[in-house]
Amino acid sequence: MFIVLIKNIRANKQNCIELRSLCEWSISTSVMKLLDTGGTMATPVYRAGDGDHDWRQQRMGLDLCGWLVDLHTRSCFWIDDAQNDAIDEWSRGREITFLLSGADGGCDNDKSRKDRDDKGLNALLAYLRNVVEITLSTKRFKIWRGGDWLDCYWRSTTTRTTVGISGSGFESYLEDEEFPPLSLRGSLQRLALHRIHQLHSMIYYCNHQENYDDDRHAASDHVDDDLLFQKEDGRHSSSLALVNEARMLVDFSLYIASCSQIIKVQSNATTQFELSTTQSLWAPVVQSLCIWTHYSDPFHAEVFLIWFFSSLCQSNHHPQHNGDNLCLPVQVFRVEKTIALALARDASFYDVGEIMSMFMRVGIQFAVRQFLDNIETIASRESLPPPPSNKINPEMRRCGGAFTMISSIELTQKLGDAKLTLDDNVDKVSRVISFLASAPVDLALCKENFALLDAVVGFDILSSHIMTNHAKDDTQQLGSTPFLLNIVRSNKIIISNIIPRTLLLSSDLDDTCLKKLASHLIKNCHVLRSDEKAVCSSCDAISEYFSMCIDYFEKNPSMLVDLLAQMTSLVCDAGFDFSSKATITRSVIRRMNIFYRHHSQSKKTTTANTSSPFGLFLRFVLDTLKFLNCSVIRYLSNVGNGQGNNDNVAATALLLETEALSLVGNISEYERLEHNDHRRGDVIRSAILTTNEEIFESTKIVHEIFTLVTDCQRSHRSSEFINASNYFLSAMAAMPENFIQIVSPSTLLKNILGASAQSLVSGQDTPLLDAALCSLIRASSGLELTKTTIAHVLSESSEVDNRVDPAFTTKTFHLLITCANNHEQHKCIASKCRAFLMVSIDLLRDRRCATAQLASNVKLFSKTMTALISKKELLLMGGREIALICSEMNPLIIYNGVNVHDDAKQGSAIFSCCCSVVASLIAHYPKQLYGCPSCLFSFLLTLLSHILQTSARKGLSLKALEYAKVCELLIPHKDIFKKHVVGLMLRYIRALNEGMNPTTKSKLMPSIYALLDMCSDFETRQINAMIDAPSKSLFAPVFQSYRKYYQYHGQ
Fold first, then answer.
1. With contact defined as beta carbons under 8 Å apart, do 954 and 907 qualify?
2. 949 and 897 Cβ atoms separated by less than 8 Å
3. Which candidate, 599, 617, 596, 594, places its Cα nearest to that of 684?
4. Its domain of life (predicted)?
5. Residues near 822 by Cβ (< 8 Å), separated by ≥ 6?
6. Of 129, 410, 529, 868, which has the fewest beta carbons less than 10 angstroms from its beta carbon?
7. Which of 42-51, 852-861, 948-957 has the weakest average pLDDT?
8. DSSP characters over 81-95
9. For residue range 79-103, what is the model confidence (pLDDT) as tens digits?
10. CA nearest 660: which of 710, 709, 623?
11. Residue-wise burial string across 494-532, b where 16 or more C-beta atoms lie within 10 A, e elsewhere
């Protein structure tokens, strides 16, 4: 119970001194009695061979000692601030006294040591150090720490090894080794970890003391150099000794966690080799992860990650004992799996740099090891060749993993038609790879990632080969091996994550991994064509590789040339699935468009680019259009025939055609200007032989595609094809100069308006069509298109038989007034603004629509009115228009009362939009409001009444905040509006008299203060005269609060 109390005590500035005294007293009394009944440690050296000794009391003493050290360390953090806040940082470091500081504690002064029981504490520290030193001198530890254990682990099969050292082939050397007793291992490990935490604090203060001393000696004018160097060596040796001790304890803690919790049951079940405790020895290691990693090396990180991935990918059922197989107790098994899952979901785990530097490499190695163990050939298992990791020297394994593309290709050739044994190990690999693909690991941009990329690509080649073998069997389809399909899909995601973070050297540009990467990914798309997610992940990887080729284009243009040549072969391959082919090609061409846009934004500040890849882009796109145009037309012609798959393929084909035509239109003129640049290399010059006739021939298909896209009714199409059609129209509108000879801008404009109207009726948002309309309005022929838009919309709206939705007219009007960019367009729009204003007001008169539709109409009205009110050059409103707007919004708020609509979100949106319109009117038309204040304050009274009827669950806070903003805008005009505020105040006082919710009263206070600030003494007396005595008693506290906290009284 005392240990539980110590673990849960929270140290702070008020109790730190008492807690420190408690820890020091408990160490010298309770702990020493538990460890040795005579009061002192009988011997500081651990003796082996006491297997029959009762270790329970000693284990409890070590546990108590560890938690007392932890509490004492936390108390020392606050101790000096509690004694004297004025002490400088260096002095605080010197005054801190830690438990178990030892003779070489570094920062403890002599006076503090004399106040402690030096004999007992030093003996306790000596005991821990001796146990650690003896353990670290055993053959078992040397095998574990020397690297042979890791090499053996990676080469062994998963059925014969565990995370521990047992089962690794070294048992014959470990029978009589000196080792801590099993009952004390957990306690000794926890004490060591607490000691590491204490050493971490001691090292911090020692470093500050050393830095302070260095600065003080550097500031001295006359100091003997030899004496100075001697003092510096002595000071720095103090912190160095602490660091070395911390590193030794990290070795001990990780070794105990790796090797202690193993149960080995002999085949005859007569004797038990080792007994495991019911507590996980990895749990304290995880709890101290952020501390001990400061004193670890890559070996410790690799051992920890092996345990992490082993626990993370375990299935829910516990493995049973089977012969010589090793496993953890059920309780420990469940605890460690829970710990690993919690650690994987902890964001701070991914900030530990020492672990994350090896996270991806160890994870891939672990998955490969599990995967190789499940491969079965037609022959017996013994005929399986050893993993290719045996052919890689240890240095290569330390850098990038034991699996590479070359070794994978060799292994696939040897395996032939091998398949997987679909058991738990495949599930483990799937879990690990999926976790690596989704883990938020921020890889550093470095050259070491190239070895990691090589390992992942090699693993992907092997897993894809095995999956292809499964697909060849008629009795097994890809759907029967979801784990295998998930492995291949996740590998592609990992590749796409690693490529942008890989820094290539000049020698790496010709590596086999890069040369075969693109071909492997392209080939995989055909195999994975039945899984859309897998194809998309492959396309992402190809796109990232394409970006890498562009980044290194100046150093090695052959990378991009080879990739585009492979892509051209893919386009020309008639046996390749068209949907996969179109998806891959579109992903690459889309990256070309992105690169062009980034280049065009910076081309004004850059000199002539002597190695521009635009010619290669154009050549590839023209070849693609030449080979795929017929297929695109065929799929587009079959749209709407009732087959959903055809519509999806047609949507993919249309997106590909849009990207290709957009790129041709963007860079054709640029390449014609730089075509005769003689500074280009022969390879580049031969690849960009492009003529105007080829460009014209490739773009003749635009009219046919445009006809197929616009003729069919949108209601008969799938949502995917509608989105693709919108994207095609927006791309056409973005470059009207390039296609003006094929499709006239007016025809394109009418089709965009028609598509937008149909989409709005069906309730679909069309940002692409809105962007297309804005592009046409801002074009060089924008004036004529503006006139066409106005005539089309208003003429359709005036026809009774074919009445256009007011929402579409209002939306088009909003786009016109926001996108018009010259005086002629403004003049054209200004002549029709009053007509558009009346149509916009019609949006508020439809009371039969649903709440969601009403909220959408009010949002559109608010957005349009706010833009129109701010543009006085288009329409200068008078009192008539302002009164009309306020009067039309007034019944809207009354209709949207709390008893009519229960949707708090939509009701709050309607209220906020109305407040935005009123705020714009007050800001831009204050003088016009002077002539019609009754309409304004009638609407403000409606808003206030609505708030008074609104509960906290109906958006009270948001509505009160919006109303306060409107009231504060009235304060500069109080000389005109002050007499109209009386009605609002009387409505508020009546609500007080009827009984107002305290929440409503507090939320309305800012608005009431703003209204009272507008009242002069006359209005105040008028309010006081118009209310009865009970109302006066209720309003008096509000008025006093206003005068105390809000009213300005001067300096």
1. yes
2. yes
3. 617
4. Eukaryota
5. 782, 783
6. 410
7. 42-51
8. HHH-TTS-HHHHHHH
9. 754 444 433 443 344 344 556 655 4
10. 623
11. bbbbbbebbebeeebeebebbebbbebbbbbbbbbbebe
Confidence of residue 1006 (pLDDT cuts 50, 70, 90): very high
Q: Which residues contact 741 (CB under 8 A, 6 or more apart)?
A: none
Reported as a single tens digit per residue, the pLDDT across 119-177 is 556 677 788 888 888 888 888 888 888 877 788 788 766 554 444 444 444 444 444 45
Torsion region of 878: left, alpha or beta (phi above 0 gives left; psi -120 to 50 gives alpha): beta
Read off the pLDDT of each residue in 801-828 and give the average, rounded to a whole number: 86
CA 630 to each of CA 362, 529, 627, 953, 981: distance values in angstroms, whole numbers, following the listed order: 49, 21, 7, 59, 73
What pTM was estimated for this model as a whole?
0.79
Six token digits for residue 334: 């469940």
| DSSP conformation letters of 306-364 | HHHHHHHT--SSPPPP-TT--B--HHHHHHHHHHHHHHHT-GGGGG-HHHHTTHHHHHH
Most distant CA pair in the chain, distance: 107
Q: What is the pLDDT of residues 389-420, one digit of tens each?
A: 433 333 333 333 457 778 777 777 776 766 66
Distance CA 680, CA 775 (A): 36
d(CA 973, CA 715): 53
What is the CA angle 767-773-776, rounded to 5? 140
Judged by phi (left if over 0) then psi (alpha if -120 to 50, else beta), residue 705 lies in alpha
Amino acid in position 798: S
Work out the end-to-end distance of the chain between its first and last CA atoms, rounded to an integer number of angstroms. 63
Q: How far apart are CA 787 and CA 953, in angstroms?
A: 48
Q: Do residues 774 and 827 touch, judged by C-beta distance below 8 A?
A: no
The pLDDT assigned to 409 comes to: 79
Contact 721, 654 (CB under 8 A): yes
| Three-class secondary structure of residue 268 per DSSP | coil
Question: For the chain, how big is the Rg over CA atoms in Å?
Answer: 39
CB 121: neighbour CB atoms within 10 A?
Answer: 22
42-63 exposure pattern, b = at least 16 Cβ within 10 A, e = fewer: eeeebeeeeeeeeeeebbbbbb
Contact, 71 vs 194, CB < 8 A? no
Q: Work out the number of other CB atoms within 10 angstroms of the CB of residue 891.
A: 13
Does the pLDDT value for residue 105 go beyond 70?
no
Residues with Cβ within 8 Å of 213's Cβ and at least 6 positions away in sequence, in order, are 231, 232, 235
What pLDDT, on the 0 to 100 scale, is given for residue 182? Answer: 75
Residue type, 360: M
- How would you label 448-486 residue by residue, b for 16+ Cβ within 10 Å and e otherwise? ebbbbbbbbbbbbbbbbbbbbbbbeeeeeebeebebbbb
pLDDT for 197: 87
For residue 1022, pLDDT over 70 is answered with: yes
Instruction: Give residue-wise pLDDT tens across range 40-55.
Output: 444 434 444 444 445 6
CA angle 397, 401, 406 (to 5 degrees): 100
The token pair at 988 is 């508020």
Q: Are 721 and 651 in contact (CB under 8 A)?
A: yes
What is the per-residue pLDDT for 899?
40
The pLDDT of 362-367, averaged and rounded, is: 91
Six token digits for residue 271: 């004797």
CA atoms of 49 and 52, how far apart (whole Å): 8
- What pLDDT score does 549 carry? 92
Listed residue (312, 184, 192) closest to 260, CA to CA: 184
Question: What angle, rounded to 10 degrees, do the helices at 449-472 and 359-372 form?
Answer: 30
User: DSSP H helical segments within 146-224, as ranges?
Assistant: 148-155, 182-219
Separation of alpha carbons 1008 and 992, rounded Å: 12
Q: Tens digits of per-residue pLDDT, 181-215?
A: 777 888 888 888 888 888 888 888 777 776 666 66
Q: How far is CA 651 from the centre of its chain?
A: 30
Cα–Cα distance measured from residue 563 to residue 546, given in angstroms and rounded to the nearest whole number: 8
